[in-house]
Amino acid sequence: MKARTDRARVGDMEFRHLGRSGLMVSEISYGNWITHGSQVEEEAAVSCVRAALDSGVTTFDTADVYAGTRAEEVLGRALANERREGLEIFTKVFFPTGPGRNDRGLSRKHIMESIDGSLRRLGTDYVDLYQAHRYDYHTPLEETMTAFADVVRAGKAHYIGVSEWKASQLREAHELARELRIPLVSNQPQYSMLWRVIEAEVVPTSTELGIGQIVFSPMAQGVLTGKYLPGQPPPAGSRATDEKSGAGFIARLLTDDVLTRVQRLKPLAEQAGLSLGQLAIAWVLQNPNVSSAIIGASRPEQVRDNVKAAGVKLDAELIKAIDEITDPVTERDPARTESPAERP
Fold this sequence. Notes:
Layout: E1 7-10, E2 13-17, E3 24-26, E4 28-31, H1 42-54, E5 59-61, H2 70-78, E6 88-93, H3 108-122, E7 127-132, H4 141-153, E8 157-162, H5 167-180, E9 184-187, H6 202-209, E10 212-215, H7 247-250, H8 256-264, H9 266-271, H10 276-285, E11 290-295, H11 300-306, H12 316-326
Parallel strand pairs: 4-5, 4-11, 5-6, 6-7, 7-8, 8-9, 9-10, 10-11
Antiparallel strand pairs: 1-2, 2-3
């Protein structure tokens, strides 16, 4: 039996299977974590979505908690006139969407109510992938997976995924999914040259189980674009200066050691004919367990630039050179994959 090809090309975009499923997703997916509904105005957000569509992106990722549910609304309006069957729309559930004790977590109540709210805001009858945004230590996993099974059987989601789950949690959920006969096909972790915590345990387990990674922050929240310089304040208007756009999240990377090493990557990017940001995205796509890399943007030109990383193949010598530069500042501890011990 011949192995199934895991890639296909349409125009300038390449597509990969999501895990071991039959669903194909664009190598570059568009996410609106901290832009739509908060950092940028809706007109600019729609322009970014249009740029993604024009560049061959068909996979769009959001979550009910982004911008207090507004991100789903903006994405829904931006995609309203597109052929639904030609898109893969993903969303997530876990973080608070209201003030109540049950407006969070992965209880049956919250999942069943949240999927309906997400579908209403997105203006669609179903999502292609419904994801557990974190692991819920306060709900039995069987309750969560049974609720997800009912969401799938009701036709409200085609596939189930998770985000930032440990290898042991993936294994337990996969076993329940098999018993329930629902397709658990993906994990959405942070992954970049500077954050490789999934490589030791999550990736090998996922490969074994047929789970694909949809990675976020492949450019390390913008640090791997090279725009942050050692010894200098962050550029005005950048993410590092905007509390609404993840300044706290990026702060740990803004050390002179990290930033100096990122600048040392520039000649390698030039050698490959890429920008630093394109090199960072292409790098995560070299991992065969990665199905798609999520990009975000506040301007359409950022989208058009980033999608050029699709289909790029980096040779072994270049990858080795990247490792030699980044290894001293790269986080690899698998224990850094974590979910809140208490519901937020």
